[in-house]
Design brief:
InterPro entries: Bac_ResReg_Asp_Phosphatase (IPR051476), TPR-like_helical_dom_sf (IPR011990), TPR_rpt (IPR019734). By secondary structure, the protein is an all-alpha fold. It has 2 domains: 130 residues, Alpha Horseshoe (Serine Threonine Protein Phosphatase 5, Tetratricopeptide repeat); 109 residues, no CATH class. It has 16 helices and no strands. The mean pLDDT is 96.
Length: 335
Amino acid sequence: MNAKAVAAEYQGALAALSVNASLDEVLEQAERHDAAAATPAERAGALLAIAEACRRLGRIDRAERSWRAAYRNARDAEDAAAMAWALWSGGTLARQRGRYALARRLLGRAADAAERGADRMARGYALAGLAETGRVQGDFAGTLRLHEQLLAEARADGQPRHVVWALEGIAQIHRHAGDHDTALAMFTEARDIATEGDDQRGRAWALRGIADLTSLRGEPDRALGLLTEGEETCREMRLEAALAYNHKMRGNVLYRAGRYAEAERVYRATIEEFTEIAEPRGEALARLGLVKSQARRGAPTAQVDEELRSLHARFTEAGLHHAAEMARTARTELL
């Protein structure tokens, strides 16, 4: 696949922005275009870019206002495709905030609007959002088929960014199912395609997946090196959520290596990172890692039990079924 990755969410006058543009640059240009916009359609495109930059920077309130404003302007312009993109942004933000039912509703509406607007790319993004929402909740069997469908479509369309996303999603499912060889092969392919397509964000996520599996194979130092490489990209592009998940994986690698004091420090810092960007799933997963590290370092059994029960209830209430099972397994292993 020789095509270069594009950032399809940057619409209209902002379409020339690189997929690797820093979020500060995206926000600056989008604000300038928003101020100069003469039509609702122009404003919709600028506000969508503002919403996405703010979402990825963890500026949740402004992201919420901006995607809604983008949707209103797209509706005023009677542009169904632009409405689809705004709804996709809103659904992605809802998933990031742990509001999974709302995410599914908005992403479903986005897919419908994309069909009306004959925007195949927006439809693909909306369906990908639905697949990812189901996957993070632990519906691996149900979302695997949709991931594979989207992978086939992305390959056929020559869209490297979407190929990378789909490969990484399927790889995560295989990893959770225990098929580490398949998962590693898919993460490695995703990394190679992202590198060839100059998709630095996709490459950083692929490196995180490879590091996870490298750690599981008993190579912690190599895994930490891969995470450091991915971290550099996250910092350059200001990918706050990706950076926090990179750090959480660093904690996982250290924990598996028996370096519990180091893992505890990393998890503590990562909890703060997720809290700052209002990412409750990541924050709770980092907290789970922290409790496990503390247990390995001799924390009182009653305290560990209480915290693991609390996390299990929290994951269950949020509909994060796989994470709830992780908390249950931790109680079995540690207590």
